[in-house]
């Protein structure tokens, strides 16, 4: 029993190996993805990020069998999608390009039933799950109104609920918070978190909205130019970048001292208030202490130091611009 469990646990939900895909366009051959490999464990929530044209959609569509890669393999729960596409994709669903094609003349309840049936489920057997989804996404009151009459945020929730209506284990969500206001986006993130935990889903989220990534994902894969440039836990990434940025306030620094700090340490965002000067410093700890010594010998007093908590957005911009 224990052995079986161990063996089952070791099969990744998604295993992608050395995927490559080129497209022919008017400007010649475009390499969309160039040797992409990763594995995703069951129950994890991964953000697939990257600037426009990085290769996220091509990767996602290759996994879903919607694009045929030139080479490489995709396995879902251990099954190769090119050998046994039906079996591999049986419990996989996706919301691509910000929305699912829900039927706007149908109600949310009818949409859920429709998509579960298309997914091969017996509608009666899943009625309870659908009621729960309608509750969770706060759609119960509008469950019997045509989708076309609902707000943008509600439509988005219907899309998400439709993806989750069948008995899925792997879900791809492309821009799940696209077009939502701040409040609806926050609610949707919360609900998504709860549902992912409850059902132990494996989720891949592609989004330019770093709030959704920071709130929901436990790992991020960042792509640029068809390759993976970062694959790490969100927590690790944030920690790794944490100590690098400081905000300081000093007293008694004249213009000459500030200019020297700019030249030698590249301090930025300098703001002067009478005798106080605030600025930002990006540095490793050795450089930070060198700057401290320099301030001391110039007779400058240190009023405060804060470590700036990096946002995933900053990290994303930094790693993708370094690569470019
Ligand atoms: N059908 C196609 N024909 C020609 N080129 C394509 C095709 N699909 C994608 N590409 C090219 O492949 C590269 C990767 O595109 P892809 O759509 O995978 O990137 P992406 O990271 O999803 O970008 P976005 O964030 O803009 O959706 C781009 O240069 C794109 O122009």
From TrEMBL:
Question: To which species is this protein native?
Answer: Halopelagius longus
Q: Which GO terms describe its molecular function?
A: ATP binding; ATP hydrolysis activity
PANTHER family per UniProt? ABC TRANSPORTER ATP-BINDING PROTEIN, ABC TRANSPORTER ATP-BINDING PROTEIN NATA
**Top-rank taxon, per record:** Archaea
Can you tell me which residues the record assigns to a coiled coil?
none
- What name goes with this protein? ABC transporter ATP-binding protein
Name the SUPFAM superfamilies on file: P-loop containing nucleoside triphosphate hydrolases
Q: What Pfam families does this protein map onto? A: ABC_tran, DrrA1-3_C
Sorted alphabetically, the keyword list is: ATP-binding, Nucleotide-binding, Transport
Family classification: Belongs to the ABC transporter superfamily.
The yes or no answer to whether the keyword Secreted is present is: no
Residue ranges of the ABC transporter domain? 14-250
Q: Which PROSITE patterns match?
A: ABC_TRANSPORTER_2
């Amino acid at each position: 029993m224990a052995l079986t469990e161990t063996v089952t646990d070791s099969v990744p939900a998604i295993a992608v190996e050395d995927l490559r895909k080129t497209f022919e366009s008017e400007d010649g051959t475009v390499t969309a993805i160039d040797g992409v490999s990763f594995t995703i464990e069951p129950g994890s929530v991964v953000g697939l990020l990257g600037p426009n044209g990085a290769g996220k959609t091509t990767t996602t569509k290759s996994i879903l069998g919607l694009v045929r890669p030139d080479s490489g393999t995709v396995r879902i729960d251990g099954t190769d999608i090119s050998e046994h596409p039906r079996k591999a994709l049986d419990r996989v669903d996706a919301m691509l390009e910000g929305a699912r094609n829900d039927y706007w003349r149908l109600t949310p309840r009818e949409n859920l039933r429709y998509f579960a049936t298309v997914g091969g489920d017996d509608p009666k057997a899943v009625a309870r799950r659908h009621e729960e989804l309608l509750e969770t996404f706060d759609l119960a009151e509008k469950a019997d109104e045509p989708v076309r009459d609902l707000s943008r945020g509600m439509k988005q929730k219907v899309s998400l609920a439709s993806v989750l209506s069948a008995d899925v284990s792997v879900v791809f969500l492309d821009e799940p918070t696209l077009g939502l206001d701040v409040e609806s986006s926050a609610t949707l993130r919360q609900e998504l978190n709860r549902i992912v935990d409850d059902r132990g889903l494996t989720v891949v989220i592609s989004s330019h909205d770093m709030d959704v990534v920071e709130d929901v994902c436990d790992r991020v894969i960042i792509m640029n130019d068809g390759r993976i440039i970062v694959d790490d836990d969100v927590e690790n990434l944030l920690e790794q970048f944490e100590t690098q940025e400081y905000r300081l306030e000093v007293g008694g620094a004249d213009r000459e001292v500030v200019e020297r700090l700019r030249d030698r340490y590249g301090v930025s965002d300098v703001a002067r208030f009478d005798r106080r000067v605030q600025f930002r410093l990006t540095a490793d700890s050795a450089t930070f202490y060198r700057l401290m010594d320099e301030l001391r010998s110039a007779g400058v007093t240190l009023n405060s130091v804060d470590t700036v908590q990096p946002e995933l957005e900053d990290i994303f911009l930094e790693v993708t611009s370094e690569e470019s």
